[in-house]
Amino acid sequence: MTTEYQNDHVPDTQVAAERERAYEPDALARLWVERANEGDAEGMAVYEPDAVMAFPIGHEHHGREAIQRAFAGMLEKFTYFPMEQSLPTLLLGDIALTSSVPQDNSRGRYQVPRRQPDGSWLRVLHSSGYFGEPS
Fold this sequence. Notes:
Blueprint: E1 2-5, H1 27-37, H2 41-44, E2 47-54, E3 59-62, H3 64-77, E4 85-86, E5 90-92, E6 95-101, E7 109-115, E8 121-127
Parallel strand pairs: 1-3, 2-8
Antiparallel strand pairs: 2-3, 4-6, 5-6, 6-7, 7-8
């Protein structure tokens, strides 16, 4: 397993204040797809500062900035991202489990978002379900 770590953490208060925020866990997927199709790697990083994402499986990206860099690499290879069918969301207080049915060769996507103090949601864990080469 390879790991990419972020050294500088961006406080939650600096999370793209002008951008639309997700006030339901399921809205994160829609925001991600819209921003991906706009080529906006920074906007795709709908994650807490210390979030962890596996993309591809076996390669972890630690921290929002590392996740954003992974998305920038992804955008160099892919320009269109379809909206996938969401599976039912599980809620437990301020955490949720979201998932979708992939339209590519992935095994499934799973995310754990957490409610923020302002009522919006950001992801803390994300498994892409993708086994290909890292971008």
